[in-house]
Amino acid sequence: xxxxxxxxxxxxxxxxxxxxxxxxxxxxxxxxxxxxxxxxxxxxxxxxxxxxxxxxxxxxxxxxxxxxxxxxxxxxxxxxxxxxxxxxxxxxxxxxxxxxxxxxxxxxxxxxxxxxxxxxxxxxxxxxxxxxxxxxxxxxxxxxxxxxxxxxxxxxxxxxxxxxxxxxxxxxxxxxxxxxxxxxxxxxxxxxxxxxxxxxxxxxxxxxxxxxxxxxxxxxxxxxxxxxxxxxxxxxxxxxxxxxx
Amino acid sequence: xxxxxxxxxxxxxxxxxxxxxxxxxxxxxxxxxxxxxxxxxxxxxxxxxxxxxxxxxxxxxxxxxxxxxxxxxxxxxxxxxxxxxxxxxxxxxxxxxxxxxxxxxxxxxxxxxxxxxxxxxxxxxxxxxxxxxxxxxxxxxxxxxxxxxxxxxxxxxxxxxxxxxxxxxxxxxxxxxxxxxxxxxxxxxxxxxxxxxxxxxxxxxxxxxxxxxxxxxxxxxxxxxxxxxxxxxxxxxxxxxxxxxxxxxxxxxxxxxxxxxxxxxxxxxxxxxxxxxxxxxxxxxxxxxxxxxxxxxxxxxxxxxxxxxxxxxxxxxxxxxxxxxxxxxxxxxx
Lengths: 245, 334
What we know:
heterodimer; A: mainly beta; 5-stranded mixed sheet; globular; B: mainly alpha; Cytochrome Bc1 Complex, Chain D, domain 2; 2 domains
């Protein structure tokens, strides 16, 4: 019995020293995590308070902000691509859930460009693809084409002293996908051994402007409104900026 | 670095000492309960069953007995089934209890979500706080101690085993055979009224799906659906967040025709009254859910024909095999 214990102890003590030998050959590759943060006109998003103003002059609040992001691709200086397939669900209210770490290791190098999809491309936007909560609550009705809401952005606004509700729900309407290709070309991500975090910062105010100025009075019951779906898709391309940690 | 090693030794010692115990208690049999194969219906979310309470034939059987036995009540007056009756989808109209149906997929319980977590957690609440079950009654009973021994290897019955058994039985209370489910499986076609009601439900015309959506017909989240201009606290009572005033858990609409009266306070006797409310009775209050889009018009403004179609669709959610399922019925019935 005693010898067995000693053997066990020796192995336990030996393990760390074995792995420390390896360290000298460690490469400069590293992991990246993606972290989603939410702002309105430069201020950190605070839920359920009517205090933000958009281009139209609507005074508004945000009570729900949930969305899918997918198909992340990093491009290095030589044009080499590193991609992370799969989709990730963000609920801006659940702070701790809003970052994910790439499971793969990124080769050392400088990455200038990041692209990803806000929403789900056609390969992923399939009924039943996300059967579990919280993603399943993003289901987009079958009579409207099925799949999933790309985004639910909801809140209230003050319209001539009457408080009204708005719901910016985006998704594929019948055969028209409206997922948004986001491209960040000033990323400046340097991978040289230590893990990095890419902060992706959404400015909610940008949903309502550039190129289309949107009035929240028109952002209700829009799931079947091809015109507004298209305008939100166009406005969404510049909603994210990035910082590296 | 010493910690992992010493931990290892402790684990080893614990394992060894348990090995000794086994030989010392040979006349006390260790029961190996039979695994219960719980089938998840097609398209439902995954069922999370903690490894500390695996589904077993013995556990489910025991849970079913406890569900139907007033021994669970401190003063022996009520069983669960006394307020959760199978023919009403495990509700009781006179007390407006919440239905027991597909609760294995819930994570929040009671109208205001007072209990969050696993089925085991709500069952522990029922046993310890609601019923204040007298454990000595169960421990001194002529049949139960042996059944607890067989299901959990428990020498002494505590509220933990009682709630674990109840949770196992509740997980078997699955309804997935309504007319709607059979339509999804391609076994039948809907009538025109049902199909039009379905479209109302699942588009922004009627707009029910945002809160009563998915295959479970609930999002298991909290909303203020506009019942009152001065709402009750609801969820605010639990969260202390004034933004939660008037929010209640969205109930599932499966078997909704069997579970009148409706709403947390049972204010509506019929489904027609509920549809009238959503059509033109919705009231504004500061915490009304943004999903109540037509609150400015008092609701979604359905015509009589549309109301009838919506109700025809809601009727497809009735599962008669569930309320007649012998596996869920009173095991003491003659």
